[in-house]
Amino acid sequence: MLSVIYVSVADPLIRDEDIAAMLTSARRNNARDDLTGALIYNGNNFMQLLEGEASRVDKCLNAIRNDTRHSGMTEVRRRTIETRDFADWFMLYYPGFDGYDENLGRLAGNGPINAEDERMMSNFIALGQRRPVM
Ligand SMILES: Cc1cc2nc3c(=O)[nH]c(=O)nc-3n(C[C@H](O)[C@H](O)[C@H](O)COP(=O)(O)O)c2cc1C
């Protein structure tokens, strides 16, 4: 199987309802194609981990790349996997991600996820929480 993580820039006009609608169809498609993963929105950018049979992952990524709800999609990590980190989720999405490491592992449901992925995703969540000093 293949696991890919990418980041992208969300359409600045995107609303929570748009994300909810996108998740509904994404989860339906992913269930059909046996794809699992997690999506994080930090207020500006998306990070998504998508895992499953290699050709299905790439086909899905091609569809996602053309989606006007985001742009600048850039893969940050691609690797072959034996087991899924998000086996229980056709697409985990949790608006309350707060950057604490244990949340991703706990939500993933089947034990700790790949440590490097967890660090990358946690850092990404923290990026969206940057506030002006003053
Ligand atoms: C950030 C982001 C993540 C997405 N993730 C998925 C996904 O995991 N699976 C999926 O099928 N579509 C996903 N989509 C939606 C696809 O771009 C595309 O709209 C969808 O596959 C079309 O499906 P439909 O023909 O059933 O409407 C995502 C879109 C965005 C903007």
Briefly characterize the structure.
This protein is about 40% helix and about 25% strand.
Question: Can you describe what's shown?
Answer:
A five-stranded mixed beta sheet has the order 4-1-3-2-5, with helices on both faces. The model has no long low-confidence stretch (mean pLDDT 89). Strand 2 and strand 3 form a beta hairpin. It has one domain: Alpha-Beta Plaits. The protein is globular, with a radius of gyration of 14 Å. It has 134 residues and is of the alpha+beta class. Helix content is 38%, strand content 27%. Flavin mononucleotide binds next to helix 1, strand 3 and helix 2.
Defining traits:
binds flavin mononucleotide; 134 residues; Alpha-Beta Plaits; single chain; 27% strand; alpha+beta
Unique ligands? flavin mononucleotide
Shape by Cα distribution: globular
The figure for the number of domains is 1
Determine the CATH topology: Alpha-Beta Plaits
Q: What is the CA-based Rg, rounded? A: 14 Å
What fraction, in percent, of the residue positions are helical? 25-40%
Percent of sequence in beta strands? 25-35%
Taking pLDDT < 50 over at least 5 consecutive residues as the criterion, the unreliable ranges are none
Biggest sheet, strands in spatial order? Answer: 4-1-3-2-5
Note the gap between the termini: 47 Å
The largest sheet is:
5 strands, mixed
Q: In CATH, what is the class?
A: Alpha Beta
Count of helical stretches: 4
Sequence of secondary-structure elements: EHEEHEEHH
